[in-house]
Amino acid sequence: MKIAIAQINCTVGDLAGNVAKILDYANRAKAAGVQVMVTPELSLTGYPPEDLLLRDGFYAACDQALFGLARDTQGITLVIGHPQQVDGQRYNAASVLRDGKVVSSYHKQILPNHSVFDEVRYFSPGTEPCVFEADGIKLGINICADIWEEGAATCALNANADLLLVLNASPYHMDKQVSRYHAVRERIGECGLPVFYVNLVGGQDELVFDGASFVMDGAGVLVHQLPAFEEALRIVELENDRPLLGEVVPQPPVEASVYKALCLGVRDYVMKNGFPGVVLGLSGGIDSALTLAIAVDAVGAERVQAVMMPSEFTADISLQDAQIMAERLQIRYSELPIKLAFDSFLRTLAEEFNDLPFDTTEENIQARIRGTLLMALSNKYGSIVLTTGNKSEMAVGYATLYGDMAGGFAVLKDVPKTLVYRLARYRNSLGEVIPERVITRAPSAELRHNQTDQDALPPYEILDAIMEAYVEHDLCPHDIIAHGYAEKDVRRVVKLIDSNEFKRRQAPVGVRVTPRGFGKDRRYPITSKYRPWLE
Ligand SMILES: Nc1ncnc2c1ncn2[C@@H]1O[C@H](COP(=O)(O)OP(=O)(O)OC[C@H]2O[C@@H]([n+]3cccc(C(=O)O)c3)[C@H](O)[C@@H]2O)[C@@H](O)[C@H]1O
Ligand SMILES: Nc1ncnc2c1ncn2[C@@H]1O[C@H](COP(=O)(O)OP(=O)(O)OP(=O)(O)O)[C@@H](O)[C@H]1O
Ligand SMILES: NC(=O)CC[C@H](N)C(=O)O
């Protein structure tokens, strides 16, 4: 008996494309003598389809695609994830397709409604197991969150399952795989069934699904591990109901996995939305340097344009480093000085401003001129503007609305500044593209003379630690101070984080790589009188 794991990159809403991909994988699996092929959760629609799931017409289209897929599949049994409407109830389902028919369906029992998940908004929970037979072996079905709690796996065991097929759409964040192994081993501890953990791969707006599907035997031993961040078809041989040992691909270390997640997130956002390429402002600083490296690795140098837009505050080394990087990466590179536009703005505003001193206003005008130029290139050539702000800056509002925040996709939105440096070093370890000086010089917005980020903000090691404690772990300022951080830093950073929610709400979407990003999994009021930094 052979079971295939189809670790595929599905596109939300592309029913015909997803069906074609599943058929292609099924044909390859069939040619290799496979009896059963398993696809990820909601493989027919992509995940998460969000409010498409509130439309009756969407379920009708899914049924049509599912029955078409069943008709076109002969000689192999498929397990397909899809949304299903039964008697007015909506379910997150997995159906068994065999001999041209949909022979049975399972309804997900545990609906996740935390962090980035909203499944209670869309689905009713299932209550029944679904076990089908292939080659004399009884295969039980679970779907993703089912396996993270006690219940659904035991339900399959009680229905006489010999092993468990688990369809997943489990998004990536750092160290996620460890928690998946842990959850699956807990279930195996309870039910003793081997588990086929089949995960989706690909980017969907802010989420990246890393694949990294695996198989554990009934003792919780890892017997197959698929690669992360790429599609794969893995054929697992069984002796009776025992999965035999196969390739165990090592999981990438954290910098490599975050880097790959960012590349996949950018590539799929750009490609699935049909952009011919990307454009970004290249300042000679670390954030735009790393963003450029990711962009090139994601979509290829021929699809990337970088623009250096010097002002009177731009250091010579910034210009040199931008040129060196463009040369190393062989991208389209232009220089568009902003002096003329800046002077023109100042002249136009001179009477209004009435000799008031140079302040953030003028800094922001420069950032906005750059944003306007990049958006003009985007409009003219159809390329999407990548913004470069990192998580630390997005946390404290250190970015200009309609300036460096103008754009379509925020690559580093969930990458704290300290991790930006680690990723730059990691990328250079594969071949040096970021000039060493860009990594070692003090970060500066170069919006006035002799400016450095550290004039305005605590050192990034401290800022990032306080941010993680407050944003990811929900600690209150007192607890953070008790961890050894200076009271003034904690109160200041927390105040900045809370009072800049308005900016983040207007920021482009970007790839989530931490357990809590500034996206679907953090919903704070903009208007709020609750002020934890004063407590
Ligand atoms: N609650 C609220 N709801 C909606 N809108 C609100 C608001 N509070 C202020 N605003 C609006 O927002 C404006 C202030 O925001 P904004 O215009 O962006 O400007 P602002 O936050 O005052 O300044 C931007 C800051 O980011 C720094 N920066 C800029 C560019 C790049 C970098 C970098 O290193 O990467 C750093 C810069 O040095 C400065 O400290 C207000 O004038 C007001 O119009
Ligand atoms: N001279 C410039 N030419 C082109 N783009 C610029 C220039 N200055 C700023 N930008 C754009 O605005 C973004 C914000 O940059 P800024 O230098 O203000 O702060 P930063 O967060 O230190 O970013 P970086 O590390 O990339 O410099 C840059 O990443 C870049 O995309
Ligand atoms: N789609 C799901 O049910 C995912 C839930 C699960 N906790 C995960 O992140 O893997």
UniProtKB/TrEMBL annotation:
CDD domains: GAT_Gln-NAD-synth, NAD_synthase. The keyword Acyltransferase does not apply. The keyword NAD applies. Residues 1-240 form the CN hydrolase domain. SUPFAM superfamilies: Adenine nucleotide alpha hydrolases-like, Carbon-nitrogen hydrolase. Its EC number is 6.3.5.1. One of its GO terms (molecular function) is NAD+ synthase activity. ATP binds at G281, L282, S283, G284, G285, I286, D287, S288, T388. InterPro entries: C-N_Hydrolase (IPR003010), C-N_Hydrolase_sf (IPR036526), Gln-dep_NAD_synthase (IPR014445), NAD/GMP_synthase (IPR022310), NAD_synthase (IPR003694), Rossmann-like_a/b/a_fold (IPR014729). The active site is at E41 (proton acceptor), K108 (for glutaminase activity), C144 (nucleophile). Pfam families: CN_hydrolase (PF00795), NAD_synthase (PF02540). One of its GO terms (cellular component) is cytoplasm. L-glutamine binds at S170, K176. Keywords: ATP-binding, Ligase, NAD, Nucleotide-binding. Pathway: Cofactor biosynthesis; NAD(+) biosynthesis; NAD(+) from deamido-NAD(+) (L-Gln route): step 1/1. Catalyzes the ATP-dependent amidation of deamido-NAD to form NAD. Uses L-glutamine as a nitrogen source. NCBIfam families: nadE, PRK13981.1. This is Glutamine-dependent NAD(+) synthetase.
